[in-house]
Amino acid sequence: MNDFQIEIIIHNHRELLWGAGITLKITVISFVLALLIGTFVGIVRARNGIWSKIFSPYVEVFRGVPLLIQLFILYYALPVVGISMGNFLVAYVGIGLCGGAYISEIIRASLYSVDRGQEEAAISLGMSKLQAMRHVILPQAFRVAIPPLMNAFSAQLKESSLVSVVAINELTRTGQMVYSRTFRPFEIYIAVGVLYFIMTYSVSIASREMEKIFHVGGKIDQSQNKF
Hints:
Helix 2 packs across helix 9, helix 7 runs antiparallel to helix 9 and helix 8 runs antiparallel to helix 9. The chain has one domain: Orthogonal Bundle (MetI-like fold). The longest helix is centred in the N-terminal third of the chain and has 35 residues. It is flat, with a radius of gyration of 21 Å. It contains 9 helices and no strands. By secondary structure, it is an all-alpha fold. The two termini are 32 Å apart. Helix content is 78%, strand content 0%.
């Protein structure tokens, strides 16, 4: 085996960093979509039995089918029935819908962690159910949800590597392209791995800081910050 050639990484670092930027862009946009979907579905399922049954198939299907297959369906199968989307839109929608199913369960569990008596107390003080949800229930549920939501963000960041199958030059696909040109897989994939680690570890640090700011659960279980 030849010696490790750091110059291979140095020569291609701009291309790899560009790929990492695309990965972050896809992750952030798809996570915002997942958070919006997950929050809505989570609240509805936690507060309304009928709507819980209606949205239950969405949650079960998107949690039960691998994300890779979902991306294949969106990118390759839907055009057969006349529904076409660009590759970036497929990435946003695919990861967003899949992530939303998981986040909805995080939100639902967080809402259940808030004593129902607090809602009743807020209503007795003259608040509507919507006001009680907005000003009393959701702020407390949000504190509980911070660690798992940050874990969900980290998971989506790593899962974004799957969008390479729909011809997006994010970090993983960029690494593959550089490898095919240099024939140096060891250096290239070490660099790709390091970049993923830096991004996910940064999320871990941000999670711990947010937990301190919002005083999540007093003593935080540090095991929740391992990705």
